[in-house]
């Protein structure tokens, strides 16, 4: 077995031998031989890239402020969805994306996905694909409520190289001197940049499985805070400047991955999906199409959900398409399996976007419904929206401005025929969802501590976080 050598990090082995933790086999099998000469449409490879904490304003192809030539090129090679939406926060999005199921049905806690859930990893593995995840995990439990969630292998990934495999003390850094897990085995690195290490694993997985179908789920660790310098932006100062450098580095890695696939002669055999898990953090204000856009991460607003979405498959999907039809991130699962000719056996809520990708329909969705109860530092909300209008569970009705993310409240005195029509449509659609009560817990980490509101459960009212050691801190080695 030949080992993949990382060039820069020095490894401290924790509960494992370094060689065992970082050795990746290169052998093939009979399945590889069977599919070595497959056509582009016969069991195509699939790569799903999920950026962490970056709204649609992060990509120049979608009118964003930040220069992203590699993602722009990927977008031009396929279909760009101008109205794609994820949940406003990371964990709710990841459960929605990986299972294709609306959150009110299977989201139980922050940082948690039930071990019984079936993911797109399970489906591709059962179809005979080699499967791997590279990047951020955050689904095995939050460490406060006692729930133990699914593991990467339980979710169908034969190989994994991830950050946030475990919570609390095992979490560690994702960037400089990271804590990563290879196939559930932990290793700390005394130096080196985490995203570079994960990128090497992703490319190695592709190399090892180039002669058979593979599914790579790549939930990137970039561009989430803390905002740090990257190997290409060592002189960046201030959070906005560092965030910009992180977007550029993310774009560089996406371009490197696409070029690597191309160098292996696999571009026509590979479906690429590029998207993000939620809006940008609110401390970052950017520009999109000349308009200011304040990041909306965590908030049930347009800037909290509006994300870039690109689907590309050379030779099979017509390039240079911009479509305005709605895309819910839970549509990724049925779309990639549909393109790959794989049937999903369980019932899901996502809808295949293949008719849109093939130019047969302008849209497969009239609206998107979200039950947003993250149980983590944010107020819950349920809402439904289409391309221009949005209705909240509490009755608030707004008009959407996709350029700025602004939601303009529509009151009874300023209703128009069009707004009345849209209100009725969304109200009817909302009723069909049969929404369940919103979970009130927002602070599971406060269990057993003094409530901020006497007589109210501290997991609902909150507690003094400073006494829990949960205050945000700045670490010199990350600067």
Any descriptors?
single chain; 479 residues; alpha+beta; Alkaline Phosphatase, subunit A; 2 domains; 12-stranded mixed β-sheet; globular; disordered C terminus; calcium; hydrolase
Task: Please tell me about this protein's structure.
The chain has two domains: 45-366, Alkaline Phosphatase, subunit A (3-Layer(aba) Sandwich), CATH 3.40.720.10; 444-477, no CATH class. The protein has helices at residues 18-22, 30-34, 69-76, 90-99, 103-106, 120-126, 194-208, 239-263, 302-305, 332-340, 354-357, 417-432, 458-461, and strands spanning 11-13, 45-51, 79-85, 130-136, 159-163, 179-182, 185-189, 214-219, 270-276, 285-288, 291-294, 306-307, 309-312, 321-328, 368-372, 381-385, 389-392, 397-401, 406-409. The radius of gyration is 22 Å and the shape is globular. By secondary structure, the protein is α+β, with helices and mostly antiparallel strands. Residues 1-33 and 471-479 have low confidence and may be disordered. Strand 18 and strand 19 form a beta hairpin. It is built from 13 helices and 19 strands. The longest helix is centred in the middle third of the chain and has 25 residues, at 239-263. The strands form three sheets. Strands 1, 2, 3, 4, 5, 6, 7, 8, 9, 12, 13 and 14 form a twelve-stranded mixed beta sheet that branches. The chain has a five-stranded antiparallel beta sheet with strand order 15-16-17-18-19, covered by helices on one side. Strands 10-11 form a two-stranded antiparallel ribbon. The two termini are 38 Å apart. It is 24% helix and 20% strand.
